Amino acid sequence: MIRKSVNCLVTLSLMFFVFLFVYACSSDADYSAKIEDIDRNLLIKSVAESDVFLDFILEHKLVMEQFMVYTRRLSDTELSEFKYNVNDDEYIQKIVEVTNLSSLLQSLEIKKNCLLADAGYGKLNQEERKILFMNYFEKPMYTAVKTRGEILNLKCYEQYTAECNRAERQCSIAVLACACVGSCACVLAAYLKLNDDLANAKRDFENCQNGK
Predict the structure, then answer these.
(1) Rounded-to-integer distance, Cα 110 and Cα 182, Å
(2) Which of 15, 35, 44, 59 could form a disulfide with 111 if both were Cys (CB 3.0 to 4.6 A apart)?
(3) How far is the C-alpha of 95 from the C-alpha of 78, rounded, in Å?
(4) What DSSP line would sit under the chain, residue for residue?
(5) Distance between CA atoms of 166 and 161, rounded to whole angstroms?
(6) Which domain of life, per UniProt (predicted)?
């Protein structure tokens, strides 16, 4: 009887220690995963606050603003012609000269290469790079223009800013992915798409305001 009690006690003790071991390993794994998540988030935050990232974003915005100034002056026919000839190097070169984009595009290329060569940015995987740009562009950066007597619908405005921010984020990522240099079709095509996306966002906003 005593032997059975001892065996039972030993068995229970072993089970207890096994439980502690398994729990400790599980806790260590969970802790390590949490630490790794924190480290990855800190890495994303570090890159987001770095000069190379902010310099690229600033240059991207300068090119975008200059490009939009030009496209707003175009008629629908001229804009269609631009889109049709976006892969024509000679045509694109003329556009770059007319818009005075040459120096800005060269500077953008330099900033892009600096970001791509950055050690911190290089450690980010594709999903983390998306998060990096998403975190930057999630803040409202566009102001809707109200005419006299117009009542701004908050839901319409939030949808509008979200679409604009998404369009600019996608454009910046597309420009960063371009393999060509300077004033090339890939870069200008990205800004052309941004131009279309912003126009669509504005149209959707106006339709929303009018209850359509």
Answers:
(1) 9
(2) 59
(3) 12
(4) -HHHHHHHHHHHHHHHHHHHHHHHHHHHHHHHHHHHHHHHHHHHHHHHTSHHHHHHHHHHHHHHHHHHHHHHTS-HHHHHHHHHTTT-HHHHHHHHHHHT-HHHHHHHHHHHHHHHH-HHHHHS-HHHHHHHHHHHHTS--------TTPPPPHHHHHHHHHHHHHHHHHHHHHHHH--S-SS-HHHHHHHHHHHHHHHHHHHHHHHHHTT-
(5) 8
(6) Bacteria
Query: Are 135 and 48 in contact, with CB atoms under 8 Å apart?
Result: yes
What is the C-alpha to C-alpha distance for residues 106 and 2, in angstroms, rounded to an integer?
88
Task: Say how many Å lie between the first and final Cα of the chain, rounded.
Answer: 86
User: What's the CA gap between 96 and 191, in Å, rounded?
Assistant: 13
What pLDDT is stored for residue 134 in this prediction? Answer: 87
How many percent of the chain have pLDDT more than 70? Answer: 74
Distance from C-alpha of 162 to C-alpha of 58, rounded to nearest angstrom: 20
Tell me the per-residue pLDDT of 40-95, one tens digit each, with 9 for 90 and over: 889 999 999 999 999 999 999 999 999 999 999 989 999 999 889 988 888 888 88
CB burial class (10 A; 0-12, 13-18, 19+) of residue 86?
A: middle
Q: Give the separation between CA 183 and CA 188, rounded to whole angstroms.
A: 7
Whether 121 shows a pLDDT value over 90: the answer reads yes
Domain boundaries, the chain: 1-49, 50-209
Going from the C-alpha of 148 to that of each of 143, 152, 161, the distances in angstroms are 16, 11, 21
